[in-house]
Amino acid sequence: MLFFLKFEYLLLNILLVQLNIDNVMSIWPSSNSSDIYLLGLFGYIPDASNNNNLVIHSRAMFKAAVLLSNQYNITIDGKLIGWKEGLTRGEVIVALNETCLSVSESNIVSIVGPEFSRETLLISPLCEKLNLPVISYSATDPDLSDATTYPNFYRTVPSDDIMALALVKLFNRFNWTSCLIIYQNDAFGSGGAKVINDLFNASNMKVVQMIMYDIAKKSIRGDLKTYLMNSPSRIVILWADSISTSLILQNALDSNVVGPLFTWIITSEILFKSFNERYYQNLVGMLLIEPVVASVVGAPYNTELLNAAYNIWQTYENETFPASTDVDYYALFSFDATWALIKSLEELCSSKINNSSSSCLSFNKSSFCFNFRFNQYDSLLSILARTNFLGVSGFVGFSNNTTDRINGSYYILQNVQASANGLKFASVLEYVGSGYWRVPITENSIIWPGNSLTPSVNRALLRGVSLRIEIAELSPFTMVQNVTDDNGQSTIQYTGYAIDLLQLLMDQLGFKATLLLKPSDQTYNEFVRAVSEGVYDIIIGAITVTSPRREIVGFSSAIYDNSLRTIVRQVNGPGIDLFAFLKPFSRGLWILVLGTCIYAGILIFLIERRKNEDLQNRSIPSQLIMSIWYCFGNMFGYGIEFNTRTAGGRLLTAGLYILSLILVASYTANLASDLTIARSQFVISGINDVKNGKVPINRVGILADSAIENYIKAVMPAGNEGLVENALNTIYCNLTEVGVSFAESSYAIVTPKEWLYTPDLDVSILSLRESGKIDDLKQKWLQARTCPDSTLTSTSLDIKALSGLFAIFVVITALSLLLFLWTER
């Protein structure tokens, strides 16, 4: 009983709506004298002006197509084609009732419509049983593309499969990688959301959340603001009809989750007048993607048919005809759907006449609609499958493999922008099935949310967000000072590497910060754990990224590349070395110098002993010693008691002078270097000495409850973190590093795990690193030096360094010997 009462209530509403519309549309010529009819199903919804234009325009162009066939004298069995229409109000049961009522009363050969996918999913299988083709002008559910499941169905509007592909190309154009989808819970919404989700996943894009809108309850299932504010993505795709789109947007505006925080992409047109003007700035930057006809993108279309249809519309219903540029695109799809059926019927009956058939069409009539049959169904469907003509929406063609039109699928992207009268839609991009979006001939710049010319990003932005930031006093990353102003007021001032970095991030990202200082008795692991417990939003400072910490918190990109170092005390000063004066030359070089002196002395003895008066009247040992003394004096710049008398002796003396010049200069330079540079000898050479037990582990100092302690427990080394570089340069001048760095790691900003704003923070840190600003901070706070540099070392000269000098001296001695032998001969 309740079912019949509800059904009667629905019929009453339909009659009231029909009477209301017929007051405006009562002058179309009647088609009751026809023998065959096309049934148009339109989803008129009372008090829904957004949808009314679609229905009124589609209904008018449906009738115009039928009347145009009458003007062209297209007849079936000598009679003109007529029309029947039903208003479904978007309800499946009403669409079923209208269909059954029409086929029970009239010879219906095909259905144009229904408008909604949820209606089509029922009407198409029903009409398959009745042997009736169905061509929809607005049902876009991707499931309807299956020709096996819906063999009697075609559509002139592009499938949502194509729109999903266009969305992927749009995301690629603006480097978006994630989004949320809000969809209405019917075939259109669910089917569209599913195909987008599948295609995005296949394209390495992420749908982070799918939010359902209940069209019966007219509300989101859950809290819209909570969903969006907790989402890592800021791109929202709204997949709903015009009525639901307006209601969802109003909810979003009330929750302040539209612009400028979010970029919305809607798929159904809205009327701006349905929103309060105080929300207009929030709507600026919103995008609308919708299917359009060929004329919008400069593709071919049938102007003759279009003008003829407009003339008929203006003749019979001029008060509803807008400017030709304002006709709803779905109305043109409606005309082409109707015209495809008319042309197919014409071809079908032409073939029957040529075959001398007595009757073109026949029906099995019944008062019970489920027993109705159209007998020429298969022949008409076969002709529809190969239909191909230039329609008012572009080229229209079908095939046996799919229910979608095989060409003529176009989309435009419109942008909500401010205008003198409030808001307007401006066409900014167009998609013509070529696989990419292009700028239209009349170019309009995209105005993004917040009246920005910079394209939106899909990540959550920190701009305007207030953060509780914990810092730890640790030089040079964070230093705390009490500053007293002229009025005697004392305030706490923070300086250091971390503070300067925080200021750079605040300037770049636009967030607000409240700084909180870590208690002195709090360990570093407790420090990090406070973020996971929600005590603080983030921590910025000298916090090492470790695997145990990463299990409970997140980390940003590295703000400082770190490693552990082994630190020891420097030797106070060089010890007493009685033979330090010998260090400028190596032992081998000293022996070579001594040998050279003796060798040269022997040559002087041989060359000078007979002709040099100073050597005569002496014993041979005395002559030999005097000769060696002569060479020593010339090599080291000491005066000698006699001069050479022979040519060979003089040449050899010249060689000694050359040798002396280089040796004395080299010795003096190296000795000065060794005497001025303190050379330190360390207890250990590096971390391996600790591992090998050269230094007991109880002699190694570490920072308790820190990353160093974790490392000690794992591999038993010793060391300190990267901040020692500054300490050694500025404070502990008596300490120094030994060995190479080890256990390389990094400092990073501690964030909650899977924090929404981590991508935005990471991008900012990387940009600071690429611009060199982080290097500037390192130079300022970590690499500045006030301690004297103690890293210089001296080296002893060896034989190789002076091998050329001695080779020259050997040649000179050989020449001296030859000269002596020549003179003696």
Structural account:
By secondary structure, the protein is of the alpha/beta class. Among the domains are: 26-158 and 303-388, Response regulator (Rossmann fold); 160-298 and 410-438, Rossmann fold; 580-681, Helix Hairpins, CATH 1.10.287.70. Helix content is 41%, strand content 19%. It has a nine-stranded mixed beta sheet with strand order 10-9-8-11-12-13-18-19-20, with helices on both faces. Strand 18 and strand 19 form a beta hairpin. The radius of gyration is 47 Å and the shape is elongated.
Layout of helices and strands:
Layout (H helix, E strand, L loop, with lengths): L1 H21 L14 E6 L6 H23 L3 E2 L2 E2 L1 E6 L4 H14 L2 E5 L4 H13 L4 E3 L16 E3 L4 H14 L4 E7 L2 H16 L3 E9 L4 E2 L3 H6 L5 E5 L2 H13 L8 E4 L13 H4 L3 E6 L1 H4 L5 H15 L11 H26 L8 E2 L8 E2 L2 H9 L2 E4 L2 E4 L12 E10 L2 E10 L5 E2 L27 E6 L7 E6 L5 E6 L1 H13 L2 E6 L6 H9 L5 E2 L7 H4 L3 E16 L17 H22 L11 H17 L10 H30 L10 H5 L15 H9 L8 H7 L4 E17 L6 H13 L2 H9 L21 H22 L1
Kindly list the characteristics that best describe this protein.
ion channel; disordered N terminus; ligand-gated monoatomic ion channel activity; elongated; single chain; synapse; Rossmann fold; five-stranded parallel sheet; 825 residues; alpha/beta; Helix Hairpins; nine-stranded mixed sheet
